[in-house]
Amino acid sequence: MNGEILVELDDLLRAERELTGLLARLRTDEQEARSLYARLEDWKGHSANVLKNQIETFFEDMSRRIMDIEQQKMELIRYVQHMRQVDSMSQ
After folding, report:
1. Per the structure, how many domains does the chain have?
2. Which of 1, 2, 41, 67, CA to CA, is 20 to 30 A from 11?
3. Domain hosting residue 51, numbered range
């Protein structure tokens, strides 16, 4: 049983690292997209307004998804801590 828990912990820790990497990439992409969005400041007219609204919606969705991933990562971290406690009690 002990070996099974350790393998599962390794998998969970790998998933945590992958989530951390994903969050870092998303934040970098978001910064780049916001930089590009700032260049649209000079655009005027109906088409510009439509595009700006679409981009703002994209940023809102991206922020929500980043928060969801952060929450999942925190839940994963709590679960890993719990599994470590259970593993240490069984030894």
Report:
1. 1
2. 67
3. 2-89
